[in-house]
Structures are given as structure tokens and as C-alpha cells.
Amino acid sequence: MISRRTALLAGAGGVAVVGTGAVLAATHEKPEPPSPPATDAKGHLLWRNWSGIQHAYPALRLAPKDEGELAAALKAAPDPIRVVGAGHSFTALAATNGTLVSLDQMSGIVGWDGDEAIVRAGTRLGALGPALAAKGRAMANLPDINKQSLGGALGTGTHGTGKTLKAIHGDVTALTLLTPDGKLIDCSADKRPEVFNAARVSVGALGIVTQAQLKTTANRRLRRRVWLEPYEEALSKAEQRWNAHRNFEFYAVPFTGLVANITHDETDDPAEARGPDSDTAFLDALKTLRNLLGFSTSLRKAAAKALLGGTKPETAVDEGWKLLSTERPVRFNEMEFHIPHQNQLAALTAVVKAIEKHRPDVFFPIEVRRIAPDDAWLSPFQGEPRGSVAIHAYYKDDYAFLFELIQPILISHGGRPHWGKLHSLAGEQLAGLYPHWNDFLKVRAELDPRGRMLTPYMRGLLGL
């Protein structure tokens, strides 16, 4: 998607010629955020999440090979107990100074029930794709990033995009849950349905999901198409595109007047290579435009349209697991809310206006997706289709504006927060968004009466 001149701008060493030919110097790159000490006063090693804003010093780290080993270890493990996958959540869901559990050694497909795969919870989504493809099967959908573990993806309601496609937990037909006291519970819609309804999206509050049974689809090739378009035109066609395409999402790019559209549709065409990553160069170009022209929205938009407006569409054909997710080497912090679908574009419009009025430092695109409904109690998509609006801040930049400026807009449009993304809602605020909130708390109290899975953050989140 990125033209040669855009890439040259991104790598121009902070200098560009704009308009009449005057040379403007870019602002200096901000320093790396300070890192916490590598150990605490007790010698416990530092744990940090992917973006670096959450950290803890677990007293004990476990990496069990199977459920029996995990159950035995939990008996004497210090509380609170939390499970970590890729550490890609931006909230403090995994942070604990008690016991941090990694399920990386509990991974892989361990069986099949017809076309449903039985998968260990430590399996990374990026590894699950080729493992399913070897059997001619695939996950129905994938999120934008595939580094997460299956257990982490289920716990936070991780999703992809597509009007008829559910979040990952929506394709779960059975689960195995290990409670903090070492009891294994197999559950499904017919067996312990109250546990099943609570455990499909549980923010790790019930115990540890050790495996899940997933519906799969035939492993089909998809045609991927990416193209830029003026913002107003893209918004006017968005609903039509969600109706027309298997997967559709778009990225609204503040201070450019442009949108990057992405579609995926099934095809029998021969494979066509995706080509090298262009997203990083695109972000570098947007950051350079911010640094050079952040003082003037009109100049910044004019320069962006001149540099990016003529880029050619990008196409690729391959198996879905190779195309639906993307590498994200540039770190960021993120807030994402799931809006009733009829309010989604109005919420996006308000967010873009607020950013362009108040936050000239923002340069990351805003991701906009659509997700089908499901019936898990704490699913953000419980009961109705929802549209997601995800706002990103470069990891070196201030992100407090997400809470102060953006969150009130998303709440006012009926949004529910993504469990793994930044938000400040808790207790009664969340209870008002989920009809089965108290049902979930009842199951939690039954399965973990001593609160061994509850950090201070988790207690606040659940209002306990």
C-alpha cells in the first residue's frame, strides 16, 4: 500500500520539504519509557505486558506440562493466582505478585470430535492455524493479532471482524476448567451450563481453562484486498460492505481524511503472495507527518492526501490463517469498546472529531470492525451484534487522553469495553451493561470461594 515516496518521507531523518519548499524539521523521537527495576526487594523477577504499561513481581511462576501437575502445584501456590499467555492485554488482568501461570507447555490439538477440535488452552492462535490446516480445517475467524494463547483469547472475548462471524468463544462447544482448589470441571451447553456460560469469557476469575472444544470450518483460500479511500465515502459504504463481504473492516486515519479498507472473501483462485509488510512503513509515514505538520491540521491533511491518496490497492490470495492476522512490531496502547451496531459509525465520527480537535499528537489509525452476537454471559457481544471502535496510542506517547477524551464518547454510545483493552469501568458500571452479571458472580463465588484468583485489580473490576 505504501508508495516509494511515502517510504522515503518516513525514513527522511526528520526533514521534509512541504508546500512552497520550506524545510521543516521533525520533532525529536521521544525516549523509551522508563523500565521498572528488574527485581523487587525480595529478588522476584519483573513481569511486563507487551506494551510495557503493566508489570508485577510474581513470587512463583508455574509452567506445568499437564492438568495433574498444575492442580498439585496450585495447592501450595501463593495467592493471587493469575494466568498469562502472550501478555497482550493492556489492562492488569495477568499482573500478580502471587503466582503467575504460563500454559505454554499445555498446547496443541489433543483430539477431534467430528469436525470439532479439542485444543489445549496454551496453544497460540498463530500455531493453531497451520495445525488445523494439516487436517483440512480452519478457525472460522481470527483476530487482527494472532500471538495470543487460546485461553487468553477466550478469557478476554478476543474477536475478528465479519457481520456473520462470532468472536472466538462463540465457536466453543465445551470447556475444561480447573478450579483453584484443584477440581476439574467439564462443561458445555448441556453439562454444567451455568459454568459454561460463565467460563467462555471469564477474565480468569473462575479458575484456569485448560482446554476447549472448537467448531472448525473447511480450510478455504481467501482473497484479501486493501485500498485507501476518502473518509466520507468509506463511511457511506461501510454498512453495504459488511453485508457484502465475509470479512470487512476499515481503519480511519485521523488528520488525513482517508480510510484503509480491508476485505476477505472466499475464493477458488490460485494463491497469490501477500507480499512484504507495508504497515510499519505506513505508520512511520504517519508519525513523520505528525512530527512535521502537527501544528496545522489542514497542511497535514493536504500532505497526507498528496502522499497517500494515489496508492494502488493491495491484493493477496491464500489460506485464511495466513491472511486474517497481521504482524504488529510497533508497540502501542489501546482502548476498544464494542458499540451497538446502529451507533457504531456515529461513535467513530465523534471520536475522530475529538482527536482532530484536541490531540494532534495522535497518528495511529482507528480500527473499526463488526461482530456477530453470542450468549456467553460476559461476552461484549452478548445478546446483539456489536461494532468495535479501537483507538491506539504509540507506546512512547501519552495515553491518558483515552480515558479522559475517548472513553466518555464510547460510553455515551452504549459501548461495552474490551476486557483486555484499556478502560476504567468497574463494579456497578459493568453490572449495568451485562444482564447476567450477578449470575456470573454467583458462579465465581461457588468455584473460587476464597478468592484465590482475585488480585486487587480483579476485585475492583468485579466490584467485590
Automatic annotation (TrEMBL):
<dbReference type="InterPro" id="IPR016171">
    <property type="entry name" value="Vanillyl_alc_oxidase_C-sub2"/>
</dbReference>
<keyword id="KW-0274">FAD</keyword>
<dbReference type="InterPro" id="IPR006094">
    <property type="entry name" value="Oxid_FAD_bind_N"/>
</dbReference>
<keyword id="KW-0560">Oxidoreductase</keyword>
<dbReference type="InterPro" id="IPR010031">
    <property type="entry name" value="FAD_lactone_oxidase-like"/>
</dbReference>
<dbReference type="InterPro" id="IPR016167">
    <property type="entry name" value="FAD-bd_PCMH_sub1"/>
</dbReference>
<feature type="signal peptide">
    <location>
        <begin position="1"/>
        <end position="25"/>
    </location>
</feature>
<keyword id="KW-0285">Flavoprotein</keyword>
<dbReference type="InterPro" id="IPR016169">
    <property type="entry name" value="FAD-bd_PCMH_sub2"/>
</dbReference>
<dbReference type="InterPro" id="IPR007173">
    <property type="entry name" value="ALO_C"/>
</dbReference>
<dbReference type="InterPro" id="IPR036318">
    <property type="entry name" value="FAD-bd_PCMH-like_sf"/>
</dbReference>
<dbReference type="Pfam" id="PF01565">
    <property type="entry name" value="FAD_binding_4"/>
</dbReference>
<dbReference type="InterPro" id="IPR016166">
    <property type="entry name" value="FAD-bd_PCMH"/>
</dbReference>
<keyword id="KW-0732">Signal</keyword>
<protein>
    <submittedName>
        <fullName>FAD-linked oxidoreductase</fullName>
    </submittedName>
</protein>
<feature type="domain" description="FAD-binding PCMH-type">
    <location>
        <begin position="54"/>
        <end position="219"/>
    </location>
</feature>
<dbReference type="Pfam" id="PF04030">
    <property type="entry name" value="ALO"/>
</dbReference>
